Amino acid sequence: MNRKNILFSQIMHLLIQKSFRPIINRYDGDRYVKKLSCLQQLTVLFFVQLKELFSLREMESTLKSQADKWHHIGLETVAKSTLADANRERPYQIWGEMFYELYKHCQKLVPRHKFKIKMPVFTLDSTTISLCLSQYPWARYRKRKGAIKLHMLLDHNGCLPCYVSMSDGKCHDVTFAKNQEFGLPDLPPDSILTADRGYIDYKWLYSLHCKGTTFIIRAKSNMTYDDLGQHTKVNEKKGIISDSVIELSNEYKYEDYPEALRLIRVIDQKKGTVIDLLTNNFKLTTAKIAELYKGRWEIEEFFKWIKQHLKIKTFIGTSENAVYTQVWIAMISYLLLSFIKFQTKYSFTLLELKRVLKELLWEPKSLVEVLRVNFADICKMSITPEPQRFY
Fold first, then answer.
1. Gap between the terminal Cα atoms of the chain
2. DSSP conformation class of 140
3. pLDDT confidence of 2, banded at 50, 70, 90?
4. DSSP letters of 360-379?
5. What angle do CA 281, 106, 151 make, to 5 degrees?
6. CA dihedral for 45, 47, 51, 54, sign (positive or negative)
7. Confidence of residue 373 (pLDDT cuts 50, 70, 90)
8. Which of 190, 226, 232, 298 has a CA between 20 and 30 Å from the CA of residue 315?
9. Are 57 and 80 in contact (CB under 8 A)?
10. Chain centroid to CA 38
11. Distances (CA, A) of 49 to 296, 343, 364
């Protein structure tokens, strides 16, 4: 191996840069650019994500300490003013399209989900990212609060986000799902979608039913319906109380969802509360439906992970474009780390992978060799300097 080929360079070469070039040209991303191209901006912002830096000044000083290695990663400048201008003026849609292009390559390597069914499983949910209203006046959420909302469709194959969108904090979940302007994609045939009760809209659920999508969603407590009888016998020892066939009553019956639904009542054994699950699938067992809805918690863990270990709660720019750019780069960073984990069959967690790369980023080590060693030996991977010779 070339000893000058640092780990950071190997990571950035994993990005499919040939696929990114048409995206950059479509938005004129590098037009009139002299110093910081789109790919160089991506490199710097990925460095910010991996090192968890808090400001442009910290980014500048940290990179300047490694100025002798810039040419390995294609950098020419790390001036904070140059990066600030790029984050403010360069369209954030560039990074969104790069995210989907990288997802196509990750999708070829992902492991199957854990539910022991052949149908693909997805979860739709959102999380709110709080912002300081005085610094982000464009993101007004409440009278004295600012926020944006991150909407996501999670593919349980590999636990990867397959669709990401951002809106203002006031946008309701079901409004986002119904509004075609947000571009929520149609799911593959015979797929399963799980969601919380914030997405209850019977017209939208019926549209999913007509497309052949199975939905499993938590019912609202004020739902009115007619009970048509028991669907299957239940096993109360497994926490299943009832499994019924219902029809929505009164104003919902013929207008919004004119067909029968399945209502399953289960007990949350940890909290001791009763949960009503609504689905249009009459073939899966009650235990499997309850397991699929319980698997929805993976997206909550995903949101928790990216908020704790990626830079999407504090931002190095205050404009709307800069904030959206940083969120998209964070999502690209997550896909890139996942791609490395799947490609190298790394046996430890994604967080441990991130910590290893963070510490060895500038080392002239082989990426494959680094990830093959035991985690206990990672601390021994630092380079021992050659002894000085005096003549």
1. 31
2. B
3. very low
4. HTTS---HHHHHHS-GGGGG
5. 55
6. negative
7. low
8. 298
9. yes
10. 22
11. 27, 21, 21
Residue 212, pLDDT score: 93
Q: What is the pLDDT of residue 256?
A: 87
Token pair, residue 229, equals 């009888």
Dihedral sign for Cα atoms in the order 171, 172, 176, 181: negative
3-class DSSP state for residue 163?
A: strand
For residue 96, give the 3-state DSSP assignment. helix
Give me 292's structure tokens: 């699929």
**Pair 281, 106: CB distance under 8 Å:** no
Query: What local confidence, expressed as pLDDT, does residue 390 receive?
Result: 38
Q: Which two tokens stand for residue 98?
A: 């790069």
Can you tell me whether residue 358 is helix, strand or coil?
A: helix
pTM of the model: 0.90
For residues 115 and 285, is the Cβ–Cβ distance under 8 A?
no
Q: Where are the domains of the chain?
A: 7-97+316-380, 197-284
The secondary structure of 194-246 as a DSSP string is EE-GGG--HHHHHHHHHTT-EEEEEPPTT--EEEEEE-S---GGGTEEEEEEE
pLDDT on residue 270:
76
Contacts of 117 (CB under 8 A, 6+ apart): 192, 284, 288
| Residues linked to residue 265 through DSSP beta bridges, in sequence order | 242, 276
**Long-range contacts (CB closer than 8 Å, 24 or more residues apart) made by 354-359:** 354/50, 354/309, 357/7, 357/11, 357/50, 358/50, 358/51, 358/52
> Strands (DSSP E) along 115-189, which ranges?
121-131, 146-155, 160-168
Neighbours of 307 (CB within 10 A): 15
Nearest-CA neighbor of 72 among 14, 5, 2, 1?
A: 5
Tokens 């969802």 map to which residue?
A: 257
pLDDT tier at 217 (50, 70, 90 boundaries)? very high
The Cα 285–Cα 263 span in angstroms is 12
- Strand pairing of 214-218 and 225-230? unpaired
